[in-house]
Amino acid sequence: MHGWSHLAATDLDELHEFAQKLGLWKSWFQNKPHRPHYDVRVEHYHKAIALGAVPMKRRELVLMLRHYYE
Q1: DSSP state letter for 28
Q2: Rounded distance between C-alpha atoms, residue 63 and residue 42, angstroms
Q3: Mean pLDDT of the chain
Q4: What does each C-alpha distance from 29 to 19, 66, 69 come to in angstroms?
């Protein structure tokens, strides 16, 4: 993993709760239409995986977000 990743979920409350566990600030939330997410730096990536986040390819993430938010 290099640079940045996106943290997303099918439920916004779950997304915010998980982000809080990672130590992300709610002000970092990007409430973009059809793709709400947090940007995650490499130092949070491994902790996110340890807490149960599932790595996805970009295409998989886009399809998931479209399914839940469009």
Answers
A1: G
A2: 23
A3: 91
A4: 9, 18, 16
Exposure letters 15-39 (e unless 16+ CB within 10 A, then b): bbebbeebebeeeebeeeeebbbbe
What separation in angstroms does the CA of 39 have from each of 24, 59? Answer: 9, 17
Confidence at residue 9, expressed as pLDDT on a 0 to 100 scale? 94
Model pTM score: 0.85
Contact (CB, 8 A) for 39 and 30: yes
- Paired with 63 in beta bridges are none
Task: Provide the token pair at 48.
Answer: 């996110």
Give, rounded to a whole angstrom, the gap between the first and last alpha carbons of the chain: 28
Residue with tokens 């779950």: 14
